[in-house]
Amino acid sequence: MLRLAATCAATPIRFNLGVEAIDRMPHHWMSLIAQYSSVVGFMIGLPIMAGAYYESLRARQEARRALEGTLHSANCLEFIAGDGTCINLVPLETLHSLPREGDVLLLPGDGVGATAVFLPGAYLVEAIEHIYTPSERKGAPPHEARLTKAVARVTSLNPPLTAE
Fold first, then answer.
1. What pTM did the predictor assign?
2. Residues 28-38: pLDDT tens digits?
3. Which of 4, 48, 92, 142 has the most other CB atoms within 10 Å of its CB?
4. Domain total for the chain?
5. Three-state SS across 17-53?
6. Are 108 and 52 in a shared domain?
């Protein structure tokens, strides 16, 4: 019996690997899995890459606008004094109409107090400037512009306050 075990261990075992055995091999299943996983990966990866490109495009546009200085008071009506200091900002969406030259407006100013530079009261609109930028919405016709900012130069009609 020991001799039989030694002879069996010494002789190599041979397998018959025909065509049927190759079809049942594990590498065939792995190639199928790889084929479908690349399709699924493409279907998931393409929208992710498109979204990343869109976000980077918007970030570049925002950075360009910040460098141009149009982001500070965009979509606002800005009231400035003669020396260029800003008195008040009003969002354009809240206005039903824009002021014209010669209009008298009531503005809140800086408030009342010792540190207030601009007092609340009546201000005369001397000039108004409209700033337009190219429209960036989808489907916009070429050379379409939209009102981005309006600047009204005003002077105070308030009597100067003197400390008595």
1. 0.51
2. 777 778 888 88
3. 92
4. 2
5. CCHHHHHCCHHHHHHHHHHHHHHHHHHHHHHHHHHHH
6. no
